[in-house]
Specification:
Leucine-rich Repeat Variant, 39 helices, two-stranded antiparallel ribbon, Neurochondrin, mainly alpha, ARM-type_fold, single chain
Length: 722
């Protein structure tokens, strides 16, 4: 019985190794093509029969090289009695063997075979045509090996591999599963290049995948959930065409069916990840359906499921549980951010009832994020997942700071230290060559305008938190003002070199934070050296900034913050050079005096006061700053002896009085009257020349007409003395 049984595995392996050794000896000693060809036939059978190690593969390559396989691949002859593909089949088998070695797969002699490999995979064949299907399988193995090399993806795109893979998939030819997998990997590696070079082919593939996903009733729909994210085009390509709208609708309908069903996590989670990718790239625009009601229900469901998943993962005592689900949680973060946006938008897809429900569950999810960051954040500063967690939490805190106050205050030291660490890393990397810096800075796939820049996302939250006493005390204790000044300087330098950059909004928000500190912690402003540095930056920046109308809101922030700080620093040595100060105040006067003009009221012959045309578009964003700036300027008049003369030289007083005299008094609201009175009164009290000018321009009568009691009293006292 023993003699008729199969050899033991070890014996089989030993026999194969002996055969391979003999073949390699023959190859080494072959004197002509016939002998080499015969030895190679035996080698390929041995190669296919076992998994060879890297050392043996190298020995085969050293014995054969690239020249003979190349001749086999391009030969048009066929030995008598052999298959027409025998040479090419043998050449592909050898090439497939070599391509399992990364060094060989990236060799120019392999890369120049890409077009031949493309021709092979699109060959028409039946599944039972073993020689041809074997060649196609070898071609896919070669392409997979090439794709894994540094130059491979670019070479495959430029040599037309993508259209061939698309054709195989669309026709469901032999190997279409391999083609789809290879397409997905190629898009993951070189997505932008693929869409730029082969858009029409990828449109067909994505459209087919989307339709299949919409219609699928079996397990394939869950596989498609995993693969579809790789085929999504760069934003906003999917929004700009009818085919894109159809793809969105198909994906939306497929996801709605999955997420509305009761499924276990292994089936639900791929759908959440697909939805997260769509949200990240296309916000809420991809949620297309027949009715607004369905839109809102799906959005509420998506955000709800995302919040539940975040809580389940992050509230686990074992951090390893969350670690194993980071991609899923990051996708859920994107859905949560969409939920936050929709809950705070006036024209939202959500109803008020849905908003209230989602706000509650978003709060619970953010509580879980804070718990997680307190547990592991300090130990994992370099983890991109921590960055993603800080980002979504910042989005929540930017809109809601009244909830979870204890938890927020407890986490603030970590958030400041984390932001400082990321900013310092960014500063170090900015001095490195670009390629090195890109490797050194970690960023979340969720996206970041500047990789590692946690402060950019945290700024809106800090603007709220610095207005509250307890968070403000913690932020000051953690050195936040000095950090914010460094960051402000970085933003300003970037903005100064490229005024079309995205830093302007962040600069405005940072000004808001400093304004909060100036108003609520004036002693800090007087004592901390960083504020004198900030003052210097503001003084030198405003005159230039004010010349550019497109940056008017930022100029309003800089002017108002500078005036507010000047009130506090006027008696110190921190105001800097007198000439620079005067230039700043001249620019401030220009900013304040330009805001209002007289215009003819429609339907009557009376002039009314109005916001000037150049300020009108931005007035909603800067009106509060203008009024605060007026108050601050008035406060500076008695503190700076030279300031009244600057006002006189500017002819601002004449402009104000002329404006008030030309318009209908009822068109000037009380807040504006108060602002003008503050400036005129302080000038009159501080400077006799200003008093005389105001009186000569009918200031007393205008004060009486507009109910400016304080100004009227000041001028009357002067008149009596005269």
């Amino acid at each position: 019985m023993a003699s008729n049984s199969e050899p033991a595995p070890d014996a089989q392996e030993s026999a194969r190794n002996q055969t391979l050794e003999r073949c390699l000896e023959v190859l080494h000693d072959a004197k002509n093509d016939s002998e080499q060809f015969a030895a190679l036939l035996l080698v390929t059978k041995t190669v296919r029969a076992s998994d060879i190690d890297a050392k043996t593969r190298r020995r085969i390559f050293n014995a054969v090289g690239f020249t003979f396989p190349h001749r086999l691949l391009v030969s048009q002859e066929t030995p008598t009695g052999c298959s027409q593909h025998v040479y090419r089949s043998l050449g592909l088998t050898l090439l497939a063997c070599f391509c399992t070695d990364p060094d060989l797969a990236g060799h120019p002699q392999v890369l120049n075979k890409i077009q031949l490999l493309n021709e092979t995979i699109v060959s028409d064949c039946e599944a039972n045509d073993v020689p041809l299907t074997s060649m196609i399988d070898d071609a896919y193995q070669c392409l997979n090996g090439i794709l894994a090399t540094s130059k491979g993806p670019t070479q495959m795109v430029s040599n037309g591999t993508l259209p061939c893979l698309s054709r195989v998939y669309l026709h469901h030819s032999y190997g279409w599963h391999q083609a789809l997998d290879l397409l997905a990997r190629l898009l993951t590696t070189a997505g932008a290049k693929c869409w730029k070079k082969c858009k029409s082919d990828l449109v067909k593939v994505l459209s087919r995948l989307s339709r299949d996903f919409q219609k699928a009733e079996d397990m394939s729909k869950f596989k498609l959930c995993e693969i579809l994210p790789r085929f999504l085009p760069p934003s906003p390509l999917l929004m700009e065409s009818s085919w894109g709208v159809e793809c969105q609708r198909s994906i939306y309908q497929g996801l709605a069916r999955i997420l509305s069903s009761k499924l276990d996590e292994s089936r639900r989670n791929p759908a959440l990840q697909l939805a997260g990718c769509l949200v990240s790239d296309y916000n809420a625009d991809w949620i297309l359906a027949e009715s607004r009601l369905k839109n809102s229900k799906f959005l509420a469901l998506l955000v709800n499921l995302a919040c539940v998943e975040v809580r389940l993962c992050l509230e686990e005592p074992d951090p390893g549980y969350a670690d194993s689900r980071q991609n899923l949680i990051t996708a859920c973060y994107a859905a949560m951010e969409l939920g936050i946006q929709e809950c705070t938008r006036e024209e939202s897809l959500l109803t008020e009832a849905q908003k209230l429900q989602l706000i509650a569950i978003l709060q619970e999810a953010c509580g879980a994020i804070m718990y997680y960051l307190n547990q592991v954040g300090w130990q994992r500063m370099e983890d991109p997942f921590i960055f993603a967690s800080v980002r979504i939490l910042s989005a929540w805190l930017a809109e809601e700071t009244s909830a979870l106050k204890e938890e927020v205050c407890e986490l603030l030291p970590f958030l400041i230290q984390y932001s400082r660490t990321r900013f310092q890393l960014g500063a170090a990397c900015r001095d490195l060559p670009r390629q090195v810096a890109e490797l050194a800075l970690c960023s979340s796939s969720w996206g970041s305008l500047w990789p590692g820049d946690a402060l950019r996302f945290l700024l809106p939250a800090l603007c709220h938190l610095t207005a509250e006493e307890r968070p403000r005390r913690i932020l000051i204790a953690e050195g936040a003002p000095a950090l914010l000044l460094e960051y402000f300087q970085h933003l300003w330098d970037t903005f100064a070199s490229d005024e079309h950059s995205s830093e302007e909004v962040s600069l405005q928000t940072a000004c808001g934070i400093f304004l909060n500190l100036v108003v609520t912690a004036p002693d800090l402003v007087r004592q901390e050296h960083c504020f004198s540095s900030l003052m210097t930056l503001l003084l030198t920046s405003l005159p230039t900034l004010l010349q550019k109308k497109e940056h008017l809101v930022l100029a309003a922030n800089v002017a108002t913050l500078g005036l507010m700080m000047a009130r506090l620093l006027a008696s110190s040595q921190d105001l800097g050079d007198a000439a620079v100060m005067k230039e700043f105040f001249r620019a401030s006067i220009l900013f304040l005096r330009r805001a209002h003009v007289s215009e003819m009221n429609r339907g009557s012959d009376k002039l009314t006061i109005a916001v000037s045309g150049s300020y009108k578009a931005a007035w909603g964003d800067m009106s509060e700053l203008w009024f605060l700036g007026m108050q601050a300027f008035a406060s500076c008049v008695p503190l700076l002896t030279w300031l009244p003369q600057e006002v006189l030289d500017s002819r601002w007083i004449q402009d104000v009085l002329e404006l008030l005299g030309s318009v209908c008094p009822t068109s000037v609201d009380l807040e504006l009257v108060s602002a003008f009175q503050g400036i005129l009164k302080e000038q009159a009290e501080k400077s006799p020349a200003c008093k005389e000018l105001i009186l000569s321009q009918g200031g007393a009568e205008k004060a009486n007409l507009y109910g400016m009691a304080a100004l009227e009293q000041c001028l009357c006292e002067e008149s009596k003395r005269c």
